[in-house]
Structures are given as C-alpha cells and as structure tokens.
Amino acid sequence: MIELVNYAYGRGFDSFLLLPLVAVVVSNVEKDLEVFVLDTETTGLDGWPKDHVVDVAVCRVLPFQGIVQPVMSSIVGHDTTKWPKEQQEAWIFQKTDLTLEMVQSAPPEDQISKELQSLLSGRMVTSFNLQFDFDKFLFHPPWCLREIVHLTPCLMLRSAPICKLPGLYDDYKWPRLQQAYDMIVGGDPAKIGGEQKHRALEDALMASYILIELVRRQLY
Q1: In the chain, where does DSSP find H-type helix?
Q2: Domain map (residue ranges) of the chain
Q3: How many Å apart are CA 42 and CA 56, to the nearest integer?
Q4: Which tens digits make up the pLDDT trace of 13-48?
Q5: What is the mean pLDDT of the chain?
Q6: Distance separating alpha carbons of residues 57 and 68, to the nearest angstrom
Q7: Spatial distance between the Cα atoms of 175 and 17, rounded to a whole number of angstroms
Q8: Which of the listed CATH numbers 3.30.420.10, 3.10.20.310, 3.20.20.70, 3.40.50.300 matches domain 2-216?
Q9: CB atoms within 10 A of CB 103
Q10: Strands 22-26 and 2-6
C-alpha cells in the first residue's frame, strides 16, 4: 500500500508535521508500479533563496520487485565566484569530494531543473527528507516541482518507528540516512562500503533500498 499525499507546507519546519490533507490509497497495485526517489546536496540548511542545490540524483524504484535504477545524476552549475565566503566554504565542499570547481563548470541550474521537471512530471516521488528537499528547495524557482509531482510519504518519518532512536520526549528521534539504512536494510545493496558519501546519487540509492524494505514490511 502506497499513499499519495499533499502536505501542508509552510515556512516553519513544524508545518511539515501536519497530517496529510489528502491521502489516496493505491490498491491492487501492479507489480510494475514505480516511485522516483530523489536526493539533493546543497550549500546549506537554510534553503531557498539563500542556499543552492549543487548535486541532484533520482532513482526509479519498482518497490514490489525490489528493483532500483538510477535515472539521473548531475552536479548543478552555478557561478560560484559570486557567492559569499560562507557558501564557497560550505560543508559539502569541506567534507565530500564535490568541489567549487566542479560546480562552476557543471551544466547550469536552469538546464538541470528543466531536465528534472521533465523526468518527474506526473510521477510519484519521495526522498529521505521531503521537507528539506522539497519545501526548502525544489518547490522554489527554478525547480518549481510543487504542482507537477505526486509526493509519497517521507522516508525519514516512516523510518523513525522502526529505528526507535530515543528522543527528548515521547516521540522517537528522526534517524539520519546512514542510521536508517544500517538499521532497516539488510546488507549493503547500495554498495556504499559502510560509510555515507553525502553525494546525491549514493544517498538516493540508500533511500531507494529503505523504500523497498518499508514496502516489503507493509509499512509504506
């Protein structure tokens, strides 16, 4: 059972915790049903317009068959010479193999956003952290995915009751991607070698196998 949901997005993170406004339960699902799992890497956590998407990837997942197929992976080009020092020295450039030079020479953001729109239009789409990827970035220009994709539930939120990480209050703490992957997925089908790379394609692969396992357990 996979739900299509429209969330009440707002400016604050807490707005994402509202219950779905619309939930359509897909019954009698054909074995070739597909969900597109997306990941972004960005220059920061504040979101649009301050921060920028610099790496994006999408996997096509047939969850009832256990099939994962990468269909898009691209560094997103920007004129990094115009960025403030805070963005030029962002965590993503300090802790991963992505460099400013790679972003400077990559295909421009307008081009990649159009390719992503074409790929995902009318599709069921999810990510490990929907609020971050979509509410903070991909619902805004030039990506503008709000009206053209059908979101399915957030993988991070669906993983929390399985991981059961202690929180400050009664609710479980939201797991990080690495934690959810290690605790939910058997083995290493994404072939990350035991350590998250924090690049979009590797993270999208990890999230894709989490989705498959959630569906297998009938928790998604």
Answers
A1: 85-88, 91-95, 100-105, 109-120, 130, 155-163, 177-184, 200-216
A2: 2-216
A3: 9
A4: 333 333 333 333 444 456 889 999 999 999 999 999
A5: 89
A6: 13
A7: 15
A8: 3.30.420.10
A9: 23
A10: antiparallel
